[in-house]
């Protein structure tokens, strides 16, 4: 059975970490607008480049991300969607192009989010996620999976993290409320070890 899973949560809630586990466990595609945009940061669009928005912690204009998601979902036989929708317009667009089997919200306290994001490191080569304290690699600065170099994302400075959180509370919390009002939202306490959070999500997805 294929799964169509939507993972919602603030920046740093663990969407990317859990999506990677879900994609592997169920053999489904990890569809993430953040990674897609980072891979095309310098792409010229009629609104400017994604980089100009992302480095400021602001949302990239809807038409750009809607196209990315539409193309990715058209190719997917089962998916976990991470980082989209981020406002009510995107939520409306999504509901017109696909159905969902599970909508999961990872709940994490704001100060924990800031600590997770400012300490995050990502592999430049394969995209694997680390944290200097909570999920440190065997050798500092080097990816366990592929030996690639670990770098800090440009938007993971404390100042930009605070801006991203503001954008989340203003634009994306209404999306969370929307799914809650529809009665389809399952809220999960995201403040536990990654494997424990994954067990909680699996219970929802398979239940
Ligand atoms: P995006 O890349 O989607 O970033 P985000 O939503 O801000 O979320 P993050 O990727 O920062 O956090 P995450 O929840 O994936 O956490 P992770 O698992 O890495 O978007 C970036 C930008 O792109 C946006 O600001 C915007 O400009 C643009 N954009 C993207 N989508 C868009 C859209 N739809 N519309 C418009 N613009 C869009 O975990 C974080 C850290 O915590 C890691 O270090 C990890 O090791 C650690 N960690 C994870 N789980 C745990 C745990 N259980 N315990 C301890 N540590 C943990
Ligand atoms: Mg992510
Ligand atoms: Zn790597």
Bound molecules: BIS(adenosine)-5'-pentaphosphate, magnesium ion, zinc ion
Order of helical and strand elements: EHEHHHEHEHEEEHEH
Structural category? alpha/beta
CATH topology: Rossmann fold
Task: Please mark out the parts with pLDDT under 50 across 5 or more consecutive residues, or reply none.
Answer: none
- Helix count? 8
Give the class-level CATH name. Answer: Alpha Beta
Strand arrangement within the widest β-sheet reads 2-3-1-4-8
| Strands, total number | 8
Major β-sheet annotation: 5 strands, parallel
* CA gyration radius, whole angstroms: 16 Å
CATH architecture assignment: 3-Layer(aba) Sandwich
Classify the beta-strand content into a percent band: 15-25%
Overall form:
globular
N-end to C-end Cα span: 13 Å
Descriptive tags:
globular, binds zinc ion, 8 strands, single chain, five-stranded parallel beta sheet, Rossmann fold, 207 residues, binds BIS(adenosine)-5'-pentaphosphate, three-stranded antiparallel beta sheet, alpha/beta, 8 helices, binds magnesium ion
Q: Could you give a short description of this structure?
A:
With 207 residues, this protein is an alpha/beta fold. The protein has one domain: P-loop containing nucleotide triphosphate hydrolases (Rossmann fold), CATH 3.40.50.300. The protein has helices at 15-26, 33-39, 50-54, 62-75, 88-97, 110-118, 158-182, 194-206; strands at residues 4-9, 29-32, 79-82, 102-107, 120-123, 129-131, 150-151, 185-189.
